[in-house]
């Protein structure tokens, strides 16, 4: 699947502009700056495909990438703090939640959690929304290169424990570093198995 072409399709700012729900769709959600766009670049092996930056609130649209001819990878705006005007942030937060709760072709939501921080209240709120909407989700720890083994065990324990309370959660947790490539092959294989 990842050996084939991947192209940017469009950036969506309103539900009416979403493409027809006729492909297997996989999205990447998470707090601003957690590393969603970087992970898409690492997965596709295309550095500048999704725009990443150190400024929280970089991605402001629902960005669609066509992976081969049967899958979409979807880069979402972050939730939580963002360096953008309040009215704009509120608009994209509403769009993001409406998308997550009501996209029929959404096969799995990957919810990215910063390995240094674990699950924050705003993450828990999104996980609860996914439970209510019965959207299967899987948590992905990001920026694993920034922590040592002891901190990693602590956060893994916290996340595993929290996931038990979420009926829509896949039990398997993936630890990644877009910087070092850790977990990228595993995540590609998981996506390739979704149909
Ligand atoms: P928004 O679009 O603003 O919500 O952010 P995002 O979740 O798309 O994050 P983005 O991919 O833009 O990355 C944010 C910052 O984290 C950038 O400076 C990245 O270089 C950095 N970053 C992302 N992934 C990793 C990683 O695995 N390791 C390290 N060390 N830095 C990372
Ligand atoms: Mg982004």
Can you summarize this structure?
This protein is α/β, with parallel strands linked by helices and 195 residues long. Helices cover 33% and strands 22% of the residues.
Q: What can you tell me about this protein's structure?
A:
- Helices cover 33% and strands 22% of the residues.
- It is an alpha/beta fold and 195 residues long.
- The chain has a single domain (6-193), classed as 3-Layer(aba) Sandwich (Rossmann fold).
- It has a seven-stranded mixed sheet with strand order 1-3-4-2-5-6-7, sandwiched between helices.
- Strand 3 (62-67) and strand 4 (71-75) form a beta hairpin.
- The radius of gyration is 15 Å and the shape is globular.
- The N and C termini lie close together (11 Å).
- The model has no long low-confidence stretch (mean pLDDT 96).
- It binds guanosine-5'-triphosphate (GTP) and magnesium ion.
- Belongs to the OXA1/ALB3/YidC family. Type 1 subfamily.
* Structure class: alpha/beta
* Helix content estimate: 25-40%
Known CATH architecture: 3-Layer(aba) Sandwich
CATH class: Alpha Beta
CATH superfamily: P-loop containing nucleotide triphosphate hydrolases
Task: Enumerate the spans where pLDDT stays under 50 for 5 or more consecutive residues.
Answer: none
What is the total number of structural domains? 1
Distinct bound molecules: guanosine-5'-triphosphate, magnesium ion
| Average residue pLDDT | 96
> Given the C-alpha coordinates, what overall shape results?
globular
Number of helices: 5
Classify the fold: give the CATH topology.
Rossmann fold
| Largest beta-sheet details | 7 strands, mixed
The count of DSSP E runs of length 2 or more, i.e. the number of strands, is 7
User: What is the succession of H and E elements?
Assistant: EEHEEHEHEHEH
> Between the first and last Cα atoms, what is the distance in angstroms?
11 Å
Strand content: 15-25%
Task: Strand order, main sheet: write it out.
Answer: 1-3-4-2-5-6-7
- Using only CA atoms, what is the Rg? 15 Å
């Amino acid at each position: 699947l990842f050996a084939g072409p991947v192209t940017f399709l469009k950036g969506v700012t309103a539900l009416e502009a979403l493409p027809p729900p006729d492909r297997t769709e996989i999205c990447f959600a998470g707090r601003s700056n957690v590393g969603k766009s970087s992970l898409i670049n690492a997965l596709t092996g295309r550095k500048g495909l999704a725009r990443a930056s150190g400024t929280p609130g970089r991605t402001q649209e629902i960005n669609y990438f066509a992976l081969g001819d049967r899958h979409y990878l979807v880069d979402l705006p972050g939730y939580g703090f963002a360096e953008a005007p309040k009215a704009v942030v509120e608009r994209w937060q509403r769009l993001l939640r409406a998308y997550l709760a009501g996209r029929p072709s959404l096969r799995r939501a990957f919810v990215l959690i910063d390995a240094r921080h674990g699950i924050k209240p705003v993450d828990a709120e999104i996980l609860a929304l996914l439970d209510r909407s019965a959207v299967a989700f899987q948590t992905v720890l990001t920026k694993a290169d920034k922590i040592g083994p002891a901190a990693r065990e602590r956060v893994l324990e916290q996340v595993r424990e929290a996931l038990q309370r979420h009926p829509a959660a896949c039990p398997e947790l993936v630890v990644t570093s877009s910087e070092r490539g850790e977990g990228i092959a595993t995540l590609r294989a998981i996506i390739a198995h979704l149909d």
